[in-house]
């Protein structure tokens, strides 16, 4: 069993393949967090020696034993107004005026299978091997019970966390903060890695030591945001890609989030993560239950790459319910940068014909196809074909596109409404806006109030009608502004603090209905690119458009940042035109392609604008992606090799370890360059790998002459010829051949290769 309760010591021990987590009850029934780290056995209460820390008060029952304080002991879920002055997990006010919560043990239950969360996305149990621990704490004075939920995935090295809060009193309880996770790390030095950015420049990693006090990673935007992704890492200062202790904390939530990390007076660290409490409140009537979003928690002692691999495996296998999560997806061509708003049916068909000639499998009609949508200031909400651009409706266009051999996909922005739209004129109260105040505008659009069932019902009926009446294989679901003026006309004044979270519940309910009703439709998420790239969306969408920035050099950093927590298959990435429409940068076609092939690959350009040589090159690249690279993206292991101001390199290894793909992109070629040297990762040291092909950099591999042991490639590495010119790149393909011992002895008979000789091509 992965969950064990020891009655004589009142200890809960949770184990996975490589980790252990332990909690214990103190004599007063407080649930203390004792340990989370490498798998180990024992009673870890021995780590916490009594000590009198000035101005840290003692529970009343222990007022004579001044070495015992909630302010110094690690808590499993921290209350408030209790004498623990560190970050609270729960803040509330009861109708009686009681503030805060002092939580003590009531009962627990261990059961097979994984808990589910009503109305919220959560991980599931694909192999029926997970277990659930439920521990209920209560505060009679406040009139609440708090059920802590733990999903233990032993083989996946993951523990999930969530909380149910029940009003057990006779009056209303107002929640002012309800976190999903409290994690106390009492010992050690730690650094925080978080991912910041802005629109078109998302997911920039930033690593820094913790400072005494509280550091916060948060969004108040009603979405997980371009500015601060909810995924964070705590790691040892010495941690590298390949060694060191690391904790990964990933909220399964797409709204305003907050993760606070406090380094306290004693050097202990507390992490509290969940819904952002700014502007949040929730009123519970007697008997009502509030459920917090889930958090996915992972630990490894083997460095950042090992931590990434845990999330890369877990998300598509145990969180995303789409049938496309681990299945091949069509290579698409999106019309946006090819035509923007300027198109009619004939132009779209010409683009589709060009896409088919390139070898694409899906044509996506982006923004501008509906209502009177001639620019981005109007018609959101009017989901019927534009009478001027598509006078015959969608059906003739789809028929003509499908005659080219392509599937058809479409862009929607269902959560938004334009003031200049039939929908807004009919239902102005369906938009979020504060009474008596002019709303903030973004792209001349407002946000629909998805907290209202009539709004989500309208959207479900509209979208399902569109999908039922047309053979649409793909939907790009966009969201192009942050929430502001958050006020629902359907809620009373005292419950307006519930609006933002009710919005998310409405969105999740809508996505649940649509994805269940249309399981064969590939849904891709988007929020101006990466404004809502999070685990909550990935529960429904197997891929998310990573950024509206399609410049390959900018994408190197964005996609690398995403790789720390999110699988490559989740990253929507396209080849676009040169010069790039966002940066004006000129880059080679091959560089644009190999960068996009690190994720779910597509194109966003007009095929007619390409030369015949470029069209031939893209045809070959698409064929190679579909046959050789997409399997690596879907189920392979991803390694960050190196990232400098000069170049960036990454590696994919197939699930069985037989195929290896190494990609290098030069950011800034330099004169008299230093050797471009790489050490590969994740290979079998005792196997022989044959270099079957080397693309880019003017190199051609001689497969018969280029054979190396895995040990040689990982420990000695390989040196590439200089990559000179405008943003050049190279790609190496290796195949595992046979155990090295059958060919030569590594120590005595290894045949020396002349690395770095341009005339010899790659290694």
Summarize, please:
This protein has 763 residues and is of the alpha+beta class. Helices cover 18% and strands 30% of the residues.
3D structure, described in words:
The chain is α+β, with helices and mostly antiparallel strands and 763 residues long. The chain contains 12 helices and 38 strands. Strands 6, 7, 8, 9, 11, 12, 14, 15, 19 and 20 form a 10-stranded antiparallel beta sheet that branches. Helix 6 runs parallel beside helix 7 (499-517). The chain is globular, with a radius of gyration of 28 Å. Residues 698-704 and 740-763 have low confidence and may be disordered.
Write the layout of secondary structure elements.
Layout: E1 3-6, E2 11-15, E3 19-25, E4 31-38, E5 90-94, E6 104-112, E7 131-139, E8 144-153, E9 158-167, E10 173-185, E11 191-198, E12 201-209, E13 213-218, E14 232-235, E15 246-251, E16 257-263, E17 269-275, E18 282-284, E19 289-291, E20 295-300, H1 303-319, E21 332-334, H2 336-339, H3 345-358, E22 362-365, H4 394-403, E23 407-412, E24 416-418, H5 422-426, E25 445-447, H6 453-469, E26 474-477, H7 499-517, E27 522-525, H8 535-538, E28 543-545, H9 552-563, E29 571-576, H10 589-596, E30 600-604, H11 612-635, E31 637-643, E32 647-653, E33 659-666, E34 676-678, E35 687-696, E36 707-709, H12 710-716, E37 718-720, E38 729-739
Parallel strand pairs: 21-22, 21-30, 22-23, 23-26, 26-27, 27-28, 28-29, 29-30
Antiparallel strand pairs: 1-2, 2-3, 3-4, 5-10, 6-7, 7-8, 8-9, 9-19, 9-20, 10-17, 10-18, 11-12, 11-14, 13-16, 14-15, 15-20, 16-17, 24-25, 31-32, 32-33, 33-38, 34-37, 35-36, 35-38
């Amino acid at each position: 069993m992965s969950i064990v309760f020891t009655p004589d010591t009142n200890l809960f021990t949770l184990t996975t393949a490589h980790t252990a987590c332990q909690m214990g009850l103190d004599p007063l029934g407080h649930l203390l967090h004792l340990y989370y780290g490498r798998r180990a056995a024992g009673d870890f209460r021995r780590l916490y020696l009594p000590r009198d820390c000035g101005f840290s008060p003692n529970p009343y029952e222990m007022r004579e034993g001044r070495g015992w304080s909630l302010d110094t002991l690690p808590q499993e879920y921290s209350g408030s107004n209790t004498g623990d002055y560190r970050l609270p997990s729960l803040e509330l006010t009861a109708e009686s005026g009681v503030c805060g919560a002092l939580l003590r043990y009531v009962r627990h239950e261990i059961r097979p299978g994984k808990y589910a969360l009503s109305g919220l996305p959560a991980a599931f149990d694909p192999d029926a091997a997970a277990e659930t621990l439920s521990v209920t704490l209560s505060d009679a004075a406040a009139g609440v019970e708090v059920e802590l939920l733990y999903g233990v995935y032993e083989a996946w090295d993951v523990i999930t966390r969530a909380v149910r809060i029940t009003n057990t009193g006779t009056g209303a309880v107002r929640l002012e903060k309800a976190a999903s996770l409290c994690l106390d790390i009492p010992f050690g030095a730690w650094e925080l890695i978080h991912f910041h950015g802005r629109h078109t420049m998302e997911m920039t990693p930033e690593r820094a030591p913790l400072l005494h006090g509280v550091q916060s990673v948060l969004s108040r935007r009603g979405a997980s945001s371009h500015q601060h992704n909810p995924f964070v890492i705590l790691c040892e200062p010495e941690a590298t890609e390949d060694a060191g202790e690391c904790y990964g904390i990933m909220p399964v939530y797409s709204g305003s989030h907050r993760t606070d990390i406090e380094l306290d007076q004693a050097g202990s660290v507390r992490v509290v993560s969940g819904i952002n409490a700014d502007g949040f409140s929730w009123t519970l009537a007697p008997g009502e239950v509030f459920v917090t979003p889930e958090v996915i928690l992972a630990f490894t002692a083997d460095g950042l790459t090992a931590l990434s691999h845990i999330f890369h495996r877990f998300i598509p296998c145990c969180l995303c319910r789409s049938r496309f999560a681990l299945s091949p997806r069509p290579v698409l061509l999106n019309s946006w940068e090819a035509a923007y708003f300027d198109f009619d049916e004939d132009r779209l068909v010409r683009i589709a014909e060009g896409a088919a000639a390139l070898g694409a499998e899906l044509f996506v009609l982006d923004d501008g196809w509906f209502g009177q949508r001639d620019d981005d200031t109007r018609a959101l909400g009017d989901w019927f074909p534009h009478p001027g651009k598509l006078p015959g409706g969608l059906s003739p266009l789809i028929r003509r596109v499908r005659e080219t051999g392509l599937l058809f996909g479409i862009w929607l922005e269902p959560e938004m409404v334009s003031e200049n739209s039939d929908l807004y004129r009919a239902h102005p109260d369906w938009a979020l806006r504060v009474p008596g105040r002019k709303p903030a505008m973004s792209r001349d659009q407002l946000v629909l109030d998805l907290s209202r069932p009539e709004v989500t019902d309208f959207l479900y009926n509209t979208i399902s009608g569109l999908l039922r009446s047309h053979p649409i294989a793909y939907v790009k679901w966009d969201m192009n502004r942050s929430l502001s003026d958050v006020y629902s006309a359907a809620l009373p004044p005292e419950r307006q603090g519930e609006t933002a979270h009710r919005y998310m519940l409405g969105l999740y309910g809508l996505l649940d209905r649509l994805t269940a009703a249309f399981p064969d439709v590939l849904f891709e998420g988007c929020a101006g690119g990466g404004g809502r790239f999070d685990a909550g969306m990935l529960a429904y969408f197997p891929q998310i458009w990573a950024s509206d920035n399609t410049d390959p050099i900018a994408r190197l950093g964005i996609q690398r940042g995403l790789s720390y927590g999110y699988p490559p298959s989740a990253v929507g990435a396209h080849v676009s035109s040169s010069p790039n429409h966002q940066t004006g940068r000129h880059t080679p076609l091959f560089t644009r392609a190999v960068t996009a092939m690190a994720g779910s690959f597509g194109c966003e350009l007009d095929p007619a604008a390409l030369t015949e040589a470029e069209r031939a090159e893209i045809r070959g690249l698409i064929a190679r992606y579909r046959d050789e690279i997409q399997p690596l993206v879907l189920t392979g292991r991803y390694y960050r090799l190196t990232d400098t101001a000069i170049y960036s390199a990454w590696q994919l290894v197939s699930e069985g370890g037989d195929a290896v793909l190494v990609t290098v992109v030069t950011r800034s070629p330099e004169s008299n360059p230093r050797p471009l040297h790489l050490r590969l990762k994740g290979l079998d040291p005792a196997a022989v790998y044959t270099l079957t092909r080397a693309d880019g950099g003017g190199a051609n591999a001689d497969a018969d002459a280029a054979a190396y042991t895995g040990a040689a490639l990982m420990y000695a590495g390989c040196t590439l010829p200089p990559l000179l010119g405008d943003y050049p790149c190279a790609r190496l393909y290796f195949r595992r051949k046979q155990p090295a011992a059958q060919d030569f002895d590594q120590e005595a008979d290894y045949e020396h290769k002349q690395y770095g000789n341009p005339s010899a091509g790659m290694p």
